[in-house]
């Protein structure tokens, strides 16, 4: 009985301590891991959100870029971090596709994180080098089919958004291109602008400025609706690619076991950020917008990730692309 009483007292003390810690949270800076290089589209989203969340939480949210292995290195680091709310992850669609893409993934995207909330779903654009011959997306499809051994497609590596878009494109037209993987979208974009590669599909957060500046040739957006910042650009479906739709959604995660009270505080701060006029305006400049209120909750986010894993699994399996 004495042992049982002691155990119950210890459990109560631990519970009280955890509750007190959650109530005081945060008392020091928070690290937001972005599993990609600085300057990329996901990094841009993270820094906008982190700046606003810092004001709400009363502590600085510091963005740390931990690139490598298609985003799995940074995600794995957060999965193993202490579940105290001081190390969080901002990741894109790769959080779901990694479950199928990687044979030896050291974490489970569906169970090793606490979902905090969805941030934004960024449209993508199919773009070509400045002197690429095709004038429209339909012409580009015909050109690729006729010159499949010569056309080069750049991406940011296995598991990246540009890689996924490329896989879906090649699957849709039934033709493979020569793919050229890079260590991030920055160097891939540099080579596209310089004419070293022919095509690339990337997020509007990374392409809008290049398109408006006339540095690349824009063909289509990958969403079912037109993008406000690029109103004259047709959709892939309008260009003849039926059911071609992909947006790169972003979400915030905490390690599994992070107290609900802390997750709720992070979610509340995210909600404020996504209503911040500065964030909304900057997102609009980049061709995207905050997720609607009903898609920002931890519960919706958790279910959404599971659904996305199921959605992309057959696409990846049919392409036969895997990484160790």
Automatic annotation (TrEMBL):
Keywords: Receptor, Signal. Residues 1-22 form the signal peptide. It comes from the Bacteria. The keyword Signal applies. InterPro entries: BUG, Bug_dom1. Belongs to the UPF0065 (bug) family. This is Tripartite-type tricarboxylate transporter receptor subunit TctC.
